[in-house]
Automatic annotation (TrEMBL):
It comes from Acropora cervicornis. It comes from the Eukaryota. This is Lipase. GO terms for biological process: lipid metabolic process. Pfam families: Lipase_3. Residues 103-238 form the Fungal lipase-type domain.
Length: 311
């Protein structure tokens, strides 16, 4: 399911507190990304795993078709109501002995009613405290209701396979939940931080500048993939000068043309403002709303919300 919004544009206003932190943040990120680089093949695999999250009832069947060579085993699927109209959020935990990986993937928006509730709450409800910053209330609540059942399953797998990497991924709403989950795993030191890898697709702004700063410091191998003029990464509007104002964390991987494949033209975004690089998606004007929605719904020729329906 895709987001469709009116795009609001705001000027980049930076309070003094943000300016004073920016130098430290830039230096920290520069050090992290000397170690970690965007991997197109891994990105595609993560997108397929995000797509499997839409197969609530037959995830193993979809998994076997999506990444058969990796022999992922779905350990559990958690689906819970996550808003006032009882829309459901969902995620799964799986593992691969072939890759020595544990994966957590979250599903995107379920239907238009959930989409409307997300939109209204994200634009008008107060953000909530999380790890020294603020995150949008819908994303945090969705994480909390799923995490109480996902966490014990994840801990059991980590205990059994302590050296395995932990991959976290999602598309759209699932991307926002994945952002929060990855930060929490790192904050709680459930695994060494260098073992956590986050790839998100079409992720909305999850929290404010302080949350973005915390996320950048906690999750070092983090990639926020944006398909050209995808509209959702522009929401909620960029408002760093307001209390709790929306601001992306890093690191943006921007497809400068429609992402028909993982090898379509793309760039790592290291310009300013940090993680809101004006030479990347935030600087690209939305000229065709229908096209922008399509570019949210489909990455690398894959439609995450419909992928498993074909099996």
């Amino acid at each position: 399911m895709s987001f469709a919004f009116v795009v609001l544009v705001s000027a980049p206003v930076f309070p003094n507190a943000i300016r004073s932190e920016e130098g430290v943040r830039i230096k920290t990120l520069r050090n992290y990304h000397k170690t970690f680089n965007y991997q197109p093949e891994l990105s595609y695999k993560m997108l397929l795993l995000s797509s499997v999250a839409h197969s609530e009832h037959e995830p193993q069947k979809c998994m076997n078709k999506a990444v058969p060579q990796d022999k992922f085993q779905v350990e559990s699927v958690v689906t819970r109501p996550c808003d006032a109209i009882k829309s459901k959020c969902s995620g799964f935990v799986a593992f691969s002995h072939v890759l020595q990986v544990i994966v957590i993937a979250f599903r995107g928006t379920e239907d238009p009613f959930q989409l409307m509730d997300e939109l209204l709450e994200t634009l008008f409800a107060p953000s909530e405290d999380f790890l020294g910053g603020k995150v949008q209330s819908y994303w945090k609540r969705s994480f909390v209701v799923l995490w109480k059942d996902i966490e014990p399953r994840l801990k059991s797998l980590i205990s059994a396979y302590p050296s395995y990497q932990v991959w976290v991924t999602g598309h759209s709403l699932g991307a926002a939940i994945a952002s929060v989950a990855s930060a929490w795993i790192a904050y709680k030191r459930m695994v060494p931080r260098e073992n956590i890898i986050l790839y998100t697709f079409g992720m909305p702004r999850v929290g404010d500048y302080k949350y973005a700063l915390q996320h950048d410091q906690l999750v070092h191998n983090s990639w926020r993939v944006v398909n050209f003029d995808d509209i959702v990464p522009r929401m909620p509007p960029f408002t760093p000068g307001l209390p709790g104002g929306a601001y992306h964390h890093g690191k943006e991987l921007f497809y400068t043309k429609p992402a028909l494949s993982i090898y379509s033209p793309h760039k790592e975004c290291h310009g300013k403002p940090t993680d809101e690089d004006l030479t990347c998606s935030r600087g690209l004007a939305i000229t065709n709303l229908q096209q922008s929605v399509k570019h949210h719904s489909e990455y690398f020729g894959v439609r995450p919300g419909a992928y498993c329906a074909t099996y």
